[in-house]
């Protein structure tokens, strides 16, 4: 290479110092930039990892809440089956509910060998959209063991009949007593007046 001359030792030293200086400048400015870029990348990766974990938890929670919702819906169906309803599309009223309770108790009594002799006037209480009706009935039976069958059938009945009072006494060869059963109903229609 005829056009390029060889470098003198002084030029080589200056060139080496320039390279060292350039390297120091690059390292002093480049290293922090590289470190900052690396830290930003590490933070982005950490954020993505946390986002993925959060999404996974949300998916797991969504499945959990969906299962809870299904359980609650099933419980509501079970509870709705235990409530008395009105006749047809009519809302439940005290007389209708009392008649339904009497009919159901008489049916269970007949299946159990118990004779219903009389019934008193039903008492009711209303709170919000709930209606509670208590019905007291008098009964007779000849076999004492029929009592347990009668009570068990009342307890297992649908719509649900709760027993709030029970008494029984023996008269010669017959047993007689009183029982108060409670039935519930709920007005599920919306009230346009907001009462």
Automatic annotation (TrEMBL):
The keyword Coiled coil applies. Pfam families: T2SSM_b (PF10741). The keyword Coiled coil applies. InterPro entries: T2SSM_b. Residues 35-82 form a coiled coil. This is General secretion pathway protein M. Keywords: Coiled coil. It comes from marine sediment metagenome.
């Amino acid at each position: 290479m005829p056009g390029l001359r060889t470098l003198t030792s002084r030029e080589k030293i200056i060139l080496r110092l320039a390279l060292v200086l350039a390297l120091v400048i690059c390292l002093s400015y480049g290293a922090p930039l590289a470190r900052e870029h690396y830290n930003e990348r590490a933070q982005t990766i950490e954020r993505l990892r946390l986002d993925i974990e959060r999404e996974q938890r949300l998916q797991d929670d969504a499945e959990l809440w969906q299962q809870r919702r299904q359980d609650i819906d099933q419980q509501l169906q079970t509870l709705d089956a235990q409530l008395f309803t009105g006749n047809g599309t009519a809302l439940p009223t005290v007389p209708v509910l009392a008649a339904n309770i009497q009919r159901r108790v008489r049916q269970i009594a007949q299946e159990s060998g118990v004779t219903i002799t009389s019934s008193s006037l039903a008492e009711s209480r209303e709170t919000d959209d709930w209606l509670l009706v208590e019905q007291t009935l008098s009964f007779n039976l000849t076999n004492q063991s029929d009592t347990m069958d009668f009570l068990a059938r009342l307890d297992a009945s649908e719509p649900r009949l709760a027993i709030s009072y029970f008494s029984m006494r023996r008269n010669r060869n017959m047993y007689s007593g009183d029982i108060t059963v409670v039935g519930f109903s709920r007005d599920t229609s919306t009230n346009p007046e907001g009462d």
